[in-house]
Amino acid sequence: MAAGPKQTRVILGISELPPKVPQALDTLDRAIMLLGSRVKSPLRQKARHELLELIGAYPGANQAAIWKKSLKHVRKHHYKSNSSSDGSVSGG
After folding, report:
1. Is the dihedral of CA 45, 46, 52, 55 positive or negative?
2. For residue 55, how many C-alpha atoms fall within 13 Å in the half-sphere facing its CB?
3. Contact 52, 67 (CB under 8 A)
């Protein structure tokens, strides 16, 4: 079972994560991309709605930068743990 946002915060020691952390790699990548766009300017309605669905909030530019950096760290950890064979993730 995948770690939820609270578990991810504890595992990684990150206190600055959005309310929801996408679990699938493709949606995590999309959230990171949308946050990057949000840092630069306000998002259009469709992208704003998508970001709300993905992470549970629509941040200001400064918060978006913080969350983007944190989610990139989560992605790095997620990608690394999925490719390792240390047995930390079981298939149920």
Report:
1. negative
2. 24
3. no
HSE value, Cβ hemisphere, 13 Å, CA-based, for 70: 23
Give pairs for 21-24: CB < 8 Å, separation 24+: 21/55, 21/71, 21/74, 22/54, 22/55
> Could you read off the pLDDT of 69-87 as tens digits, one per residue?
999 999 998 777 665 444 4
Residue 15 to residues 12, 54, 66, 72, Cα–Cα distance (Å): 9, 18, 10, 14
pTM for this prediction: 0.73
Q: Please give the C-alpha separations between residue 81 and each of 11, 67, 74, in angstroms, as whole numbers.
A: 12, 21, 10
